[in-house]
């Protein structure tokens, strides 16, 4: 509605306002731990939990690389899709995936035969 350059300028001004408010209102120790844990204390005592955590880390990393890099490049390069088509598909996918995730608890309750809310 206002054009690309004006939109970038509006966004920069708004981000500057957020930065200014953050500097004025947030406490300096926000997000800092009182006691810093040792590196070995970050992990669980259970080997199975640590293996599961490592597997999830690898799985989500691979998924992110696939959706952020590989799939858009593949669709653009191999299928000749435009940037708008690739971006539109990924936007619809993310929105649809989020919608499915919001319904997952209801679906699992339904499958298990438990009463829903």
Automatic annotation (TrEMBL):
InterPro entries: MFS_ArsJ, MFS_trans_sf. The chain crosses the membrane at residues 6-26, 47-75, 81-100. It comes from the Bacteria. Keywords: Membrane, Transmembrane, Transmembrane helix. This is Uncharacterized protein.
